[in-house]
Amino acid sequence: MDVRVLGAAAPDPFLSAADLFETEYDLEWPVRVRVRDDPDERTWAAHYDGHHVLNISRQAATSVMARELALHEFAHMARYEESHPSHTQSIDEVLFLALTGRSVERRKLAHCYQIANHMKDIYADDITLSLAPATKLLTFLESQLATAVADRPSAAGRTDWTRLTAAADPDITAVNAAFALALVERHDLVDPTHPLYDFAAVAGDDAPDVDVDAFKRRFKSLVTNPSESDYRKALVDVTRAYAVHSGSSPAAD
Question: Pfam families of this UniProt entry (predicted)?
Fold first, then answer.
């Protein structure tokens, strides 16, 4: 596995992640790690003709989560190389299939991309969590959800629809909570007394139109090796459930 770090960051976390990844998996294409200055873009994987790029913010690259974040992105690359439907399905095609002829709020349309990423993350983390302890991931999920719940807009003035972070609005925060619970339950990581459940309950109360348990079941029950058509249907269904059926009101197409 060929990993090269480009930018002012120590290569150790990325090489350590590669060593751990190679105990069970491998990548045919080389990986280029590009360290970015933008702290809001934590990590993302890109795929080109014959190589992958792991984009990571300088803040993330120098954090205690650097190795775990790199391992997660390597897992995305592996799913891409194996042509797993979660990593080859076009979200634009899904939006067309799910929402044509329907009126959907612009903010919810934007959130559909985040939901699709959650489904990709489920399959990437099936790999990640088979390789590394979940301690740091649990701390990260708990921190993110706690911050989102605390940072939610007030009931009197929910006007901050331009933000696309976890705290953008209560609806997507509730779906993010469902994703976190699905991930930990899928891998039996916690018991029902874990603080994640308390934060998820608050997120659900803040978004009465979003059924947290229903979205949790959708994420948790994703089959390991779906066919292309089965995965497309699952993504269409969850997109429609969020954008159309969770309290949508008439809005711009």
Answer: DUF5781 (PF19093)
